[in-house]
Amino acid sequence: MAEPLIVVKNLNKSFPGVHALKDVQFDLYPGEVHTLVGENGAGKSTLMKVLSGVYQKDSGEVLLDGKPVSMPNPKAAQRLGISIIHQELNLMNHLTAAQNIFIGREPKKGPFLDEKALNKKASDLFAMLKMDIDPRVKIRELTIAKQQMVEIVKALSYDARVLIMDEPTAALNDAEIEELFAIIRDLRSKSVAIIYISHRMDELFRISDRITVMRDGQYVDTLKIGDTNLDRVISLMVGRTIDASVPQIDLSANKPVMLKVKGLSQGNVLKNINFEAKKGEILGFAGLMGAGRTEAARAIFGADPINAGEIWVNGRKVIIRRPVDAVRHGIGYLSEDRKRFGVAISMDVEMNSAMASMPRFTGFAGFVKNKEIRKAAMENVKKLSIKTPSLQQKLKFLSGGNQQKVVVAKWLIRNCDILIFDEPTRGIDIGAKQEIYTLLNELALAGKTIIMISSELPEILRLSHRIVVMCEGRITGELAASEATQEKIMKLATQRETMVKAQANQ
After folding, report:
1. Is the pTM of this model over 0.85?
2. Residue 275 CA: distances (Å) to CA of 191, 284, 330, 431
3. How many other C-beta atoms are found inside a 10 Å radius of the C-beta of residue 42?
4. Considering only 240-254, 390-404, 410-424, which range has the smallest mean pLDDT?
5. Which of 34, 86, 384 is nearest to 210 (CA)?
6. Partner of 477 for a Cys bridge, out of 147, 400, 427, 492, CB 3.0 to 4.6 A?
7. pLDDT the model gives residue 9
8. Is 312 helix (H, G, I), strand (E, B) or coil?
9. 139 phi/psi in degrees, rounded to 5
10. Residue 356's closest CA among 305, 404, 415?
């Protein structure tokens, strides 16, 4: 067997109040896809940032080709042939694909940029990887999947021998995932070693050669894909049994309507949106990327202006022009982009938790009731199993999944009657997903109205009482949980407006 390309020995890394990596072991072979799994906060991303020079280790050793190496910064890692593609893409929308790939390394003719040579170099790389991308196209004109391909080419342009992919499929649909997997297999055949981080358990057995499991910052085990199964991997990840069943709620027909949307339209984005959500109901919103689900949620919440339509809350017509109006009427919104719209990562857990409820915690003459804030924050940290050393920990030091839980805590403290969850489990591990699923059901049982947007059909089918399906800014159908299947949802999700008109004219 070939010698390992990378060997990690007894690696340690700490942040204020958190021992993120504890004597971690890891190895990687040429031409291998080695998947790294674990719950949020397990240390996966921290380990990868050490290997890519983003963080510096406190102690331990990293060997490359059997020799100790130091990576004081990402450029040093790239010179050694190690590149990382972060979950949040790092591209400049106003530049072309070629300009993004070779930024700072552009070919020149004398003092001038050689645009022709630049595009040729990028075109050759795209051709080598069988990617159909015009090097002259602006990044903002590409889909997320195509942007990710540009990131891959950018990483490989440094002659990468090791490619680290952190949650690469989080924002991709099924067809785009297949395209990405084809590229990964091609890279593997060229002896590029790939470290793959994912929370999507179904992907592990389709793309991995080996799986390394981490838990609480420590190495647990490494498994060959042919010698294990999903139950074994999950058991090692969470250290406990995950209950796959979630109790369903009997939604009787006489439940009051808490949210009613009539004729909601927004330019060419949303077209005549009509639906109702009842008290104690989880109403799922399904559809492909770009179907308009998030846009509908943002319009209802007042984050984006509308051209026409009415919103009714608990039987009363309301005017919502800004998010503060929505919150005043008892509507909370958990955005799919938590870092832009959900949390203030430079603030601590305590203040993020209280952010939506400050009037409740502000007394006479503007004095803040710190003890009440602390009590409410602590209750929800415990309720949601948020992994944090203290309430004073800044959000930027928490894992993505724990940041997401803080957003949930913010709206639980606000005690809204209507909660819109947009991709509530994106980037969250299987154990945390179970906790979110249980929480959604508990909220519904307590009489809250839940609107849940999700790109994962099993999640939609598992939790929803009714499912609204969108395509191209329109609602193309509604299904009861008892009749819904993945096939029926996908049929409605691809029912373009032209098809609907054709059917109407028959």
Report:
1. no
2. 52, 11, 18, 32
3. 27
4. 240-254
5. 34
6. 492
7. 96
8. strand
9. -60, -40
10. 415
Residue 89 DSSP label: -
| Burial of residue 484 (number of CB atoms within 10 Å: 0-12, 13-18, 19+) | buried
Q: Tokens for 45? A: 């991303």
Q: What distance in Å separates the CA atoms of residue 505 and residue 333, rounded to the nearest whole number?
A: 39
The DSSP element (H or E) to which 6 belongs, if any, is strand 6-15
Going edge to edge, which strands form the sheet with 67-68? Answer: 18-28, 6-15, 59-64, 67-68
Q: Annotate 137-156 with b (16+ C-beta within 10 A) or e (fewer).
A: eebeebeebbbbbbbbbbbb
DSSP annotation string for 461-485: HHH-SEEEEEETTEEEEEEETTT--
Give the confidence band of 499 by pLDDT, cuts at 50, 70, 90. Answer: very low
- Location of structure tokens 């400050």: 358
Render 210-276 in DSSP notation, one character per residue: EEEEEETTEEEEEEEGGG--HHHHHHHHHSS------PPP---TTPPEEEEEEEEEETTTEEEEEEE
Return the percentage of the chain with pLDDT > 90, whole number: 45
- How many Cβ atoms from other residues are within 10 Å of residue 475's Cβ? 23
Whole-number Å distance between alpha carbons of 462 and 445:
16
* Mean pLDDT, rounded, for 144-172: 84
Q: CA angle 239-240-242, nearest 5°?
A: 130
Q: How far is CA 363 from CA 314, 354, 370, in A?
A: 29, 14, 10
CA distance 374 to 353: 9
pLDDT tens per residue, range 189-229: 989 999 999 877 778 888 999 999 998 889 999 999 999 88
Q: Whose structure tokens read 């017509």?
A: 317
Pairwise CA distance, residues 146 & 126, whole Å: 11
Count other Cβ atoms within 10 Å, centred on residue 195: 25
CA distance 351 to 315: 34
Closest CA to 8 of 58, 35, 47, 54: 47
Q: Which stretch of DSSP H or E encloses residue 82?
A: strand 82-85
Please state, in angstroms and rounded to a whole number, the distance separating the CA atoms of residues 162 and 193: 5
Pair of tokens at residue 399: 């894992």
Torsion angles phi and psi, residue 304, rounded to 5: -130, 145
The letter for the amino acid at 165 is M
Q: For 175-204, give the DSSP string.
A: HHHHHHHHHHHHHHHTT-EEEEE-S-HHHH
Would you tell me the crossing angle of helices 115-128 and 144-156 to the nearest 10 degrees?
A: 100
Does residue 253 carry a pLDDT above 60? no
CA distance 6 to 383: 40
Q: What number of residues does the chain have? A: 506
